[in-house]
Design brief:
Elements lengths: L15 H13 L3 H18 L9 H12 L15 H5 L19 H10 L5 H22 L6 H11 L27 H6 L9
């Protein structure tokens, strides 16, 4: 018995070994018309094996590309689509540049830092103070989300001053900070809950 582990590795395993054998048979055909007919038959079989490709607008183009890939680009036929090149498969994608911006207070996030820097460009003092009001409260919420320890309002205003490079100078008493409310303690014995609990009725035998 011949096991798959002892056979040649499949290029596209999703089509199965029989389809790969059909492709290799089509490559060995000497008559061009016979190769074209065999290729069209193989495309029909591939489409039936991969019905999810029908949802793709150019699914037939993809099937023909897979046919050439399985033949190691040795199948000489009249394709309705441009024949893909083997070099395109090994071509490495371009490196996507990732912005590296140093942030000292990383727990606030890059977006909040950019908002603070935009606030420094606001010339209207009332509008700037209103914006700082929102920024300060958001910074406090973010700080408490990442740090269990309590944060003072003065620390928030100091961070705003540092991030804005000293362009936003406001005292903590000029900002209406939201107050953190501790969760009320849960009583150990809830008598009301016990009273409202229904008694189980045990039927007599």
């Amino acid at each position: 018995m011949e096991y798959n582990t002892s056979q040649k590795k499949l290029v596209l395993p999703e089509y199965g070994r029989h389809v790969h054998m059909m492709v290799q048979y089509a490559v060995q055909l000497k008559d061009r018309e016979e190769r074209n007919a065999a290729a069209r038959t193989i495309i029909v079989v591939m489409g039936n094996l991969q019905p999810h490709l029908r949802d793709i607008p150019d699914f037939k183009h993809k099937l023909w590309d897979h046919l050439f890939v399985m033949s190691d680009f040795k199948l000489d036929i009249d394709s309705p689509y441009p024949v893909p090149l083997a070099e395109e498969l090994v071509e490495k994608p371009n490196i996507v540049p990732y912005p590296q911006v140093p942030i000292r207070q990383k727990h606030y996030g890059k977006l909040l830092v950019e908002i603070i820097r935009e606030a420094t460009k606001t010339e209207d003092q009332d509008a700037q103070q209103a914006l700082v009001q929102l920024i300060a409260n958001q910074m406090k919420k973010t700080y408490l989300a990442w740090n269990r320890s309590e944060v003072t309002n003065e620390q928030i205003m100091q961070d705003i001053w540092d991030i804005s490079n000293g362009k936003i100078k406001m005292r903590a008493d000029q900002i209406r900070f939201f107050e953190t409310v501790e969760n009320p303690p849960i009583p150990r014995n809830n008598n009301n809950a016990q009273k409202s609990r229904k008694k189980r009725m045990i039927p007599r035998k």
